[in-house]
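User: Assemble these into one structure.

Assistant: Restating your components, then the assembled model:
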Amino acid sequence: MRKTLQSGWIWRLLGTAPFALLAGCTAASPEMLAANDPYEPTNRQIFALNQQLDAIFFKPTVQRYLSLPEAIRTGLHNVLRNLAGPTIFVNEVLQAEPGRAGRTAARFMINSSVGLGGIFDPASRAGFAYHGEDFGQTLAIWGAGEGPYLMLPLLGPSNPRDTAGLAVDTFILDPTNYLRLKGHFWWDAGRQYLNYLDLRSQTFETLQGIERSSVDYYAALRSLYRQSRDAEIRNGAPARTQDLPDF
Amino acid sequence: MMQPLVLARRALLAAGFMAAMLAPALAADPAETFVAQNIQRGLGILDNKGLSKQQREDQFEQFLLGLTDMKRIADFTLGQYRRTASPADVAAFEAAFQNYAAAVYRSYFSKYAGQTLKVTNSTLRAPTDYIVATQLVDPTDRSSQQPLEVDFRVRTDGPRPVVVDVSVAGVWISLEQRDQFVGFLGQNNGNVKLLITHLSDLAKQFKS
């Protein structure tokens, strides 16, 4: 059973300080506070901008990407997951999960060698199935609260804890940061773009279905993000049933 | 001469004792039995190629209404606005929600037609309030991926068990709908009539 450290005041301070400015812009209604979304008007404006960018640029790109043969998309998906292996490993060590860290290390070694640089995924067939982990989850295990809901430009749903986690994963924990490459910026930019393309293509149909069936797509995504992040942090363990609302 | 009879009686007693010990462990609770018996039937309707699209939709809707407590779910999804809405609006919302949910749930679950459901365990959250954990296994999947975890929240406080929520990969659908509807009402001055109109439009779009 995983143990979380006690939430400290420092996490709350770190989580809320950068957003105090936003709080001054709007008076949060009781509904916004109940939804832990005190910056909802600003978040909705950013969401509208993201939706426009998505419609103009990303959706057509993803649709073209989806027309590629499935084998190519699967290969790229596998390579990107394999590149994330070391970051996942470090986070599992930081979370004191030696069993999971060992499986991630084994998976990385098998797929990098037998899987030809991660194009193929023989590790899954050998019993080392993929599982994700990131520094946002590590912070949660260490006891950091999620903080208020945030809609980030281009990056979408988040919160202060997961935003900080993303920055640490991208700029500190990813070992490719420490490789001396010519044009390192373009390597990073290209990889992030492919990561986005891959993620968007994996969720394309599901998100389309949710958008089509939603009366409030923004609120639907907010709920889905929170619930799925909670499930990720629990690593698939059942939720505390007492946390569920009464019917 | 008595020895074989004594042995036989002891063996019978031992067998009876073992059966009594094992019975509680083997007997599934009513919620587990309910899910195991019914959900596979629903997936079977969605996978029945012998039915026309319309027949499949009608049968699944009937199946869904018999399995769930739509009124209870509808009232839950209104959140705090349930207390302030007029009885007429609540009744109209419950009817609109039923149509909407039937269309949307059919769309959600049609993706899993042809898959096999396996009940893995259940938890008693409160008296008559169970969480039944299941896994959906796709017999055609060769990707070595983990089976999809689907949990059912079952209430047994009525004349028959009913499903009040479903969680797919950790996301509870009724909870997501409540967050969505409350978000919508918060943006629209708590106008339940407007929500009803939107739900009716969406149900029509899904059915067309």
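Chain A touches chain B at residues 29, 31-32, 34-35, 121, 124-125, 129, 209, 212-216, 218-220, 222-224, 227-228, 230-232, 234, 236, 238-239, 241-242, 244-245, 247 (CB under 8 Å).
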